[in-house]
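Quick start: load a record and inspect it. Here is Transcriptional regulator, LacI family:
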Amino acid sequence: MTGPALPRATLAEVAARAGVSKATASKVLNGRPGVSEETRRQVHQVIRELNYTPSTGPREATDHGTVHVVFDTIVNMYSPHVLDGVINAGRELGVDVVTSVLAPDGVIPDRSLGVDRIKEIAVRGHTGLIVVTTQLTGEEIATCENLGLPLVVIDPVNPLDERVISIGATNWAGGVQATRHLLGLGHTRIAFAGGAEHSVPGRERLHGYREALETAGIVPDPTLIRRGPFTSETGAEIGGYLLGLDEVPTAIFAASDAIAVGVIQVARSRGLRIPEDLSVVGFDDTYGAMWTDPPLTTVRQPLRQMGRVAARTLLDIADDKVPDSHHVQLATTLVVRDSTATPSASSRRSP
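Running the structure step on this input writes:
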């Protein structure tokens, strides 16, 4: 009779016994460069001693590093900017970039990345994984760790612990910038539109909005705060609600440019002029912001730079370099265009 099966060794155990990081052990396992021959020999010896086999099967070695980027959806104003930044960084650093999308039809999925998808990416021998505006579970994060797959998250939608490196913008400061701009023009009845309740960036922008109002001595009115996904459909729905109130807002701070576009569309359908009757501020400064009618005042987040920083950080992790910070936030900037102005007497009347 044979005894019970021994527990399968993990990559973490291989790394610990060899005295190297999991990233280094992963490099050796996948035949990637950047490891000394002595270290490579030592790790292979431990792999034999522990009879270690990756749970996903052997990974293929590649001549050139490949960064895998996962988006929740790419059918929006935001994602192409981020992808452009990752691709440019990959070109500069000599790595290939491949992408996958959870929702090719643009309908944001109510699900996380999935352990099976992470294992599929690991099997391909990719250098690491960048996850953009997509929910991650603790099990998925642990899977990346156990497989030695470096992970960086851009604009995480749910709170992440210190195991995960994240790249984002100063969303709270951006919310303050947008709201202070409207207050400076003389608006006092300012609404906030959008940002799903589970979204970390959305909550931060809302907190910045509240902070600016309270600093100005204005108590935020809960009837003027509405939440929803970062889509133009959300903007149209929230805009319809806000503009149907007995006392309409004179200005709306939208949590994304897409939401702002929806707000403007529904305002126009009700005969309102932008900015004479309603001022609108967006967030992102995407391609469409300067081509709205009128051009959109918005908070610029450095989306391309976020993609570049994410790619560089991922490769640093793969090379066993310790990041300076686990949560990198790049500065936002208010870009004033023609969708905001001093409130007029007519803008205080219900449409």
